[in-house]
Every structure is written in structure tokens, then in C-alpha cells.
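A favour between colleagues. Tell me how you read the following sequence-structure pair.

===
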Amino acid sequence: MVSRVIPVDCFDLVVFGGTGDLARRKILPGLFRRFLAGQIPEDARIIGAARAEIDDTGFRAFVKDAIMEFGGKAAKQTEAVAQFLERLHYVAIDAKGEVGWAALAGLMRDDVVRAFYFSVAPALFGALAERLHQHGIASPESRIVVEKPFGRDLESAQKLNATLALHFTEHQIYRIDHYLGKETVQNLMAVRFANILFEPLWNARHIDHVQITVAETVGVGGRGAYYDKSGAMRDMVQNHLMQLLCLIAMEAPYRFDPDAVRDEKLKVIHALEPVRPDDIVRGQYRGTGKGTAGSYCEDAENPDSRTESYIALKVDIANWRWKGTPFYLRTGKKLRARASEIAIVFKEVPHSIFGEEEGWRENVLSIRLQPNEGMTLSVMIKEPGPGGMRLTEVPLDMSFAEALGEDGTDIPDAYERLIMDVIRGNQTLFMRGDEVEAAWAWTDPIIAGWEARGDKPRGYDPGSSGPEDALMLLHRDGRRWREIRE
């Protein structure tokens, strides 16, 4: 099966922070792959804007290097790379000053979609928004894309929303969370709402619990100073894991419409119960050598840090569909494997006609976000061969790499899909302002609670599954975490 490519309208896309790491690794190589797929019109333009004093030629050389490093097999298409580079321009610009803005205004066209990607620190969002209007660059139909972190608490998120609202309406603001652009995440909605098979079972009567895991093998590395002011709760749970939880738990929207979908997600956030202190486990990875060598504290350059590199929570949703079905969330760095998975664990059959067979397992719908995107449904069958009725567990497996392309290259990266949605004006996979604020309103008391108690994160070994206390979070409920594996 080959994915269908639907071209978008002609556009001018300005990437503020165009020489930054995110632009180099994701945005620009992703745009090239969309160009190679035939989705980007011939006369579309991509304009880099940053402080670096380079010209169009220098920016094109930068982008070419980025494509060679991060473009995958597409980078071998040398003729296409050259054609793509012709569509690139660059403006050296001062986000808080006046340098470069007149030049950028002179590049804008009136008859195309105008989109502005704020791939910069949130502190610059307001200045960029203000100058886009001061210089007549933003039109009433222009779109801005803002990266996380979108605030670090409710107060800062509200201020940021208010700042952007001075210059742009809500329908022009695209708060991007790349997890929502993943093929499997969108297929979660398709599996639920396009198939009669699962929706009747998607409730507390049939689902025992849900596990959401986002595990990384790397530490905080060069992000130590930033991460130490954030931690796993702010960096991952408040946005990525919260969005996954909402898509699992939400009711069916009246149609697949941006506000209809986001209305249902918001209802889930409002229904989240406060999390009790004994339903939270925080951890920090230890060093691999003597003392603190290689530890989180060393990477963060803060020997007294109480910031978590790992967190696990038990979350309850106070509504009819999910009352009594807990959601277990965990995320951490320097864990056993790089893996992101949603596991829907169904209840056991009420009565087994086969007796207490050893090896009995619940049915589990496993949704893999990375690596190897796909879904697996485990079911019990008779073990082949004579000798009585022996049961065994087998997976019904759908690997997207196999279904949509021999090696998975037909699956667009999340950023590719989301940027094309911006050009289309489709906000379905982007967070709305009230949704962000509601998430922070739930998160803030949790953080304030452990700060008031003076809780210190538990140590865990690199390459493990996290702190031992996290195992007890499920064991006391008669459950267990799924193994973290690629």
C-alpha cells in the first residue's frame, strides 16, 4: 500500500530559528521529503530567519548538509535536492530589534498562504508576533506555529496565550506537539471510531487498565541546564503523555473537526482526578562509575538537584466511561530501551471453561509509537498439537512499515504531516489555548505538592526500567508494568 499524497496550496513558510537544531534535524529535512513526494507546489518558498549573518547561498549550504545528515534515503536524490534548494531564501533578523524586518516584508507575496514557524525560545514568541504586525507581514489569514514548552506553569501559559492573542486569533495559532503527528496516534482514533470492533469494549467494564510509556535511552546531555528547570513532569507528562491519554479516553466527537476533537480532549482533562502523593514515583538516573560520574546531577551540573529524570503516576478519570479503570503513565531517561507504547489491557474473561491454565494472559492492544510504529492485539488460542487443550498467546500484528511500505520510508515524519496541516489550515492535531491551560491547572498542584513535601527523587541505574518504587505502583494493585523493549 502506498500513501496518497494530496498537494497543498502555494505558500511562503518563514522558519524563525532557521539555523537552529530543530530546523536542521526535523523541519527542513521534513520539508524536503514532502517536496520529493510531490506535495509542495513548484512556486512555494521556504524562508529561513535567524541571527546568523549569512545569505541565501550560505543558508542553502546549511540546508543541504542537514538533508545529507537527516534526510535518510531521500538525500540520495541529488537532482531533487538541488531543485529544493532553489526554493530557499534567508533573512538575517533580530527578533527584538528592527534589523531584517523590512527585508522579510519585501519577500512576502499577497496571493499565497503565509505561515510562520516559531522554532525559537518561548521568550521570543511575543516579540516575533508583535513585529510581524508592526511591519505588515502578518495577514488576517496568516498562521503561526509555536513549539513547546508552552509555559512552565499555569500562570506563564496564560501570559503567553494573552501575549499571542494581542496579535493573532486562536484559529491562527498552531501549538505543535509532534506526538500528535505520528501515524500510530492518528490510527488510534481510526481504530476506535471507524471500527465497530473496539468502541463497545472501550470502557471500564471491559478494560482493566491502560499503560502509557515513553522511554528514552539517552540522558539529558547538553540540555542539562534547561532540563533541570523542567523535569520529566513538565517536559513530557504535561504535554506528550497528556495528549495520548486524552486521545485514548475521549468520547467520540460529533465529527472529525478541529474544535470538535479538541472539545472532547478538554473534557478528559477536566475529568482528571487530583493525584495522591503515594500514586507518584519520581526518579533520577545514577552514575555508571564512582561518585556522580555520568549521573543526572553531573549532567545537569547541579549536585543538589531534586529534578526528576523519571516519573510514574497512577491517574484516575472521574466519568462514567472510565470510573475504576486506572491509567498508569511513566516516562524517563537512560532507561532500558527507546520505546513509546500505549497498552490497553482488557479484563480477563469472567469464567474460564479451560480451568486455571498456566500462561493465561489478558488480551492487550499494544500501540507502538516508536520505534517500528504499529499495533499488536494479543489473543489466546489453542497451542498446536495433540495432548489436550493447552492455551498460548499469539499476536495479531500490523506493522506500518510492512503495511505502508517495504522499509517504512512511505510513512511521513510527524513534523512533515503537521507542517502540511498548518498550510491546509487544519488545527485538529494542534493544541488549543484552553486545553494547554487546563493541562497546567492539573499539573501545577502535583508539582507544588512534592516541592512542599521536599520529596527527593529515587535513584535508578542506567539501562534499567526505572526506580524499584515504580514497580510497587502497580504491584500493590495486582498488576505489573509491561517490559520496556524496542
Summary: The mean pLDDT is 90. The two ends are 25 Å apart (CA to CA).
